[in-house]
């Protein structure tokens, strides 16, 4: 053996040679290139198969294609074929959902392929007219992605469950609300699609698959305010100020368009890393007159205004009253009325609201004079005298001097302050308050405030890449 042979290493496999002369990044890049070539070949084969079966699919979905004709707005076929999913405008999406809500179930049941319209091309990747659940987008049960293992309390709405969704191509995390098609109404989508604002959860698209309508929308990394109250207890006033101001901005925008949300409550206020948004527009209406005369009772009873309970007509001021009751819930950990009138003895609060509103006795004992005055304006029984969202946004209670507010991780981030935050592990230094708690507990739980919401908001503000799940199990 020559001296040169002794100096040169021996390689038994080509992989050893690669590892010796290429860094790991080069190897990964090469593997990805090979994977992409194989994937392109597979896609070409699938395309040929789909082409050969296209006529058969059109025959199977003849009735499904027929129902799409004449829908107007350029959305006669949301998928560009028999079924299918495509990108479209708000007008096309609304045309599609109106069609779904008015089509007979027997016709929809014959569709064997997903169909829908997506508004967001950046976050949702359509592949040849397909957007397959659990392939192109993965859905994860809410209980597994957000709720603590020991907590069995999952809020439930009238219809539809919300999952955490993640697009497999863009890696974008979204909230996905599933509504059985027989319970779906165009109103569930209309207002969220038409009205865009920073403090209104953005709608990304609508897909019908497996007899369920999938509503994809902006996900709340911090969960809903109700979930934070359940896990952390009553909120501190500076936290309440932050959330209230965000919600007021959303309400101001809606009310400027004569839109009544009708269901403002903690479970419909969702926390992002640097903002809060309103969700659940299933009960929303747009007034055509100065007063809206309902045909049914709209809202959640503990948060209803006296004029809504009477069903004699109301306007946008009803949302302001509901916000005031929600602030009481944030202060005390309980909705108004339930501490003084336990649910076990009073199955309905409508009569109590009619006779005794507003619930000023339920305001927290440690409420500041400025916030107490704010609540008096928001909970004014006479809606004519009640302050509007624009007026309340100027109130001193939600615009305190910065020096008078405690240094708070979440507010520092939200208001553009000091970006340095304590380590996330500091959360463990506080008392564990994640055990299951009752929404209608008679204890005000002021003592639980030391483990309050600011820890969670602060962690999300400083570590916004951490996403723990969608806003709530049920938006309603």
From TrEMBL:
Q: Which PROSITE patterns match?
A: PROTEIN_KINASE_DOM, PROTEIN_KINASE_ST
UniProt GO molecular function: ATP binding; protein kinase activity
Query: Residue ranges under compositional bias (Basic and acidic residues)?
Result: 395-406
Q: Where is the composition biased (Gly residues)?
A: 70-83
Q: Does the keyword ATP-binding apply?
A: yes
Entry's SMART domains? S_TKc
Q: Which domain of life is it from?
A: Eukaryota
Q: Which Pfam families match?
A: Pkinase (PF00069)
Stretch list, region Disordered:
37-83, 395-445
In this chain the Protein kinase domain maps to 148-398
- The residue ranges flagged as biased composition, category Polar residues, are 431-441
Family annotation (InterPro entries): Kinase-like_dom_sf, MAP_kinase_kinase_kinase, Prot_kinase_dom, Ser/Thr_kinase_AS
* UniProt keyword terms in alphabetical order: ATP-binding, Kinase, Nucleotide-binding, Transferase
**Keyword hit for Metal-binding:** no
Q: Which GO terms describe its biological process?
A: intracellular signal transduction
SUPFAM superfamilies in the cross-refs: Protein kinase-like (PK-like)
Q: Where is the composition biased (Acidic residues)?
A: 37-50
Instruction: Spell out the protein name for this chain.
Output: Mitogen-activated protein kinase kinase kinase 8-like
In its UniProt entry, the species of origin is given as Sphaeramia orbicularis (orbiculate cardinalfish)
